[in-house]
Q: What sequence folds into this?
């Protein structure tokens, strides 16, 4: 069957398409129908089913005789450790940990925050929550205490599961002091914390802390608890226009059905084969493609704790692909830009046998044509750009390689997948002509597994996604579709920027800058960066009469963002200006500032501040009358 037939088949009978896909899932009670639209524009899929995510990701593979197959390969160049966990071992470990949580009173619907580095125990914690119907919310380790506190207050977890530390190439990141200070800042207090002690740093335990093994001692393994199809399996916070992150809700049944469908049809792997997504469990890619989808589909997943370069060098990815016989590999373009910078001719790859690899999949940010062409030429496999978001949880547009390998057009994420009717709209909500730029919107309903709502915030769901273009989901991205239906993603339409594949809100950074006592007004924009795609650049106007050194203030605001948001913000560029460019009605002209900054040759600063670049931007602004 051609992809066109599959897509048209979905379009002519969407519910039939998804009911058929649902046959791949083991239901406790199968759904009576696919779509619930009685509360439109809020939609639910497979709502009346009873099912358990952990059963489908773990237990059923053991029952079907695949218990000896490797479920998780852990490969950590940062700690020089490797391990393999079979499906049988995973089942025992998850059931035992879930038993420990249940014995402490965690039950269906309770929220549990997971603050873990890239170790197999992060997946065990996620699956254990799913096993007993608890709703997990994983927080990325590169966020600071304040960001963790915001998520604690929104999700109101009964427990927090944390590692004792993360490992970065140049430092050990102690999680426990961050966790303690987050709990101190938050209004909501968890009943207890579970601490996974890593030998790299043993945390001191306080009165509400229980050690990982001690939690399980004397408790019984927990069985899989049936939950309804619309029960949230997790909440994942992501950046929006304002500083407060949005809690994307992931419904159990649709998530199982849709993720299973993607593994063969998009990523072209068969059960038993090794699939690797080099991301982090703190991001949606990690949720969907390190943890859930490969396991639901019966693949082997790789938990990689390392960086593409420097640990030890730019050949790490090739070594992992060869050593573990990876068949499909998924990462962010920024990782390839880093490898290309260190090994521009691709000499290192020639030392490895990567014959087993079928394709490279890139997502998370715009894949620049140079990087795609380079990856294709040195790796000798197809490179598929694909586009999706935390909100959808899986591909909106991609190359359906398991159905039909569509010709790659460099710069395009290829075509919309079944479930997604993607349109390009002008400001008035009218569809534009092929090739013309506009807002990318998706005709409602969104397919199974996508967000039904935002946690505790249905009004924000309406306002953020469903109001601008009635009948459509507003993606927040701008782009075009060509005559062949190929989609080109160009930029965001809101104040979200993408730094090294990490989604950040400029509004959140502005909130931090505005809190500096000498800052009267500020603006943050994203500027192009060769390595990270974009970098945040801050402009601050000082209070009248402030005569402190500008350099000191710049360093202080940079330090504040690192402390309040975390190192992941990569906020290292800021300058003091006289005033900000504004419209007559007082709106800050961020786009004007971004185009001035983008016209300057930009490089990621090697040091905390790069006065040469800032001076150039300042003088460009000055020529327009905005800076001193
Ligand atoms: N815990 C603590 N700190 C972290 C962290 C973590 N889990 N992850 C990153 N950081 C820190 C880094 O150490 C760095 O600190 P520094 O300012 O002291 O150098 C800072 O946050 C910025 O990190 P990052 O921008 O990620 O740069 P990096 O050099 O650490 O890594 C990449 C570069 C390309 C490997 C990384 O950005 C990456 O993997 N990006 C892909 C993201 C992704 O998977 N997105 C999902 C779509 S696939
Ligand atoms: P996140 O929710 O963190 O996955 O970020 C989603 C956003 O990243 C999208 O809305 C896009 O702005 C951007 N993005 C993701 N994948 C791509 C891609 N393949 N091409 C361009 N931008 C992308």
A:
């Amino acid at each position: 069957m051609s992809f066109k037939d599959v897509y048209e088949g979905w379009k002519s009978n969407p519910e039939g398409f998804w009911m058929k896909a649902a046959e791949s899932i083991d239901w406790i009670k199968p759904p009576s129908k696919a779509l619930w639209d009685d509360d439109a524009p809020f939609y639910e899929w497979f709502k009346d089913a009873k099912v358990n995510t952990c059963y489908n990701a773990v237990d059923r593979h053991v029952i079907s005789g695949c218990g000896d197959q490797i479920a998780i390969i852990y490969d950590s160049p940062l700690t020089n450790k490797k391990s393999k966990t079979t499906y049988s071992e995973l089942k025992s470990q998850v059931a035992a940990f879930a038993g420990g949580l249940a014995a402490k009173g965690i039950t269906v619907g309770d929220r549990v925050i997971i603050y873990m580095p890239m170790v197999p125990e992060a997946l065990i914690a996620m699956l254990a929550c799913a096993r007993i119907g608890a709703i997990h919310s994983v927080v990325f380790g590169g966020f600071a205490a304040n960001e963790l506190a915001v998520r604690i207050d929104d999700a109101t977890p009964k427990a927090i599961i944390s590692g004792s530390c993360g490992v970065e190439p140049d430092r050990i990141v102690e999680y426990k002091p961050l966790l303690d200070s987050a709990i101190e800042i938050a209004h909501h207090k968890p009943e207890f914390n579970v601490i996974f002690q890593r030998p790299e740093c043993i945390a001191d335990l306080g009165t509400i802390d229980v050690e990982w093994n001690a939690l399980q001692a004397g408790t019984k393994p927990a069985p899989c608890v049936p939950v309804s199809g619309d029960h949230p399996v997790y909440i994942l916070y992501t950046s929006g226009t304002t500083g407060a992150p949005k809690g994307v809700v992931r419904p159990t049944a649709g998530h199982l059905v849709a993720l299973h469908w993607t593994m063969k049809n998009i990523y072209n792997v068969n059960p038993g084969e090794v699939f690797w997504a080099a991301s982090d469990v703190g991001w949606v890619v990690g949720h969907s493609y390190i943890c859930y989808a490969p396991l639901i589909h019966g693949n082997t997943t790789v938990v990689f704790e390392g960086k593409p370069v420097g640990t030890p060098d730019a050949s790490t990815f090739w070594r992992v692909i060869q050593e573990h016989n990876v068949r499909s590999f998924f990462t962010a373009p920024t990782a390839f830009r880093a490898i290309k910078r260190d090994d521009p001719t691709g000499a290192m790859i020639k030392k490895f046998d990567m014959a087993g690899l079928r394709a490279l999949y890139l997502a998370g940010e715009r894949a620049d044509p140079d990087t795609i062409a380079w990856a294709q030429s040195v790796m000798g496999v197809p490179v598929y750009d694909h586009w999706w978001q935390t909100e959808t949880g899986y591909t909106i547009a991609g190359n359906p390689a398991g159905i039909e390998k569509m010709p790659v057009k460099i710069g395009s994420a290829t075509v919309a997948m079944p479930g997604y009717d993607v349109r390009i709209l002008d400001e008035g909500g009218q569809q534009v002509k092929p090739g013309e730029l506009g807002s990318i919107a998706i005709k409602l309903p969104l397919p199974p597994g996508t967000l039904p709502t935002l946690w505790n915030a249905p009004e924000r769901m309406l306002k953020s996604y469903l109001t601008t273009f009635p009948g459509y989901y507003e993606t927040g991205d701008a782009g075009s579709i060509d005559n062949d239906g190929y989609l080109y993603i160009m930029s965001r339409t809101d104040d979200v920027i993408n730094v090294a594949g990490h989604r950040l809100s400029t509004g959140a950074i502005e909130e931090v800058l505005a809190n500096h006592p000498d800052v009267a007004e500020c603006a943050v924009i994203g500027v192009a960066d060769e390595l990270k795609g974009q970098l945040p650049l801050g402009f601050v106007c000082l209070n009248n009469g402030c005569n402190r050194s500008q350099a000191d203030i710049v360093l202080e605001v940079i330090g504040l963002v690192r402390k309040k948001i975390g190192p992941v913000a990569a906020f290292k560029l800021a300058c003091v200006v006289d005033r900000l460019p504004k419209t007559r009605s007082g709106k800050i002209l961020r786009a004007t500032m971004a185009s001035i900054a983008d016209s300057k040759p930009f490089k990621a600063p090697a040091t905390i501040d790069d006065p040469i670049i800032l001076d150039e931007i300042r003088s460009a602004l000055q020529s327009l009358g905005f800076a001193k």
In short: The first helix runs from residue 3 to 12. Residues 538 and 574 are 4 Å apart (CA to CA).
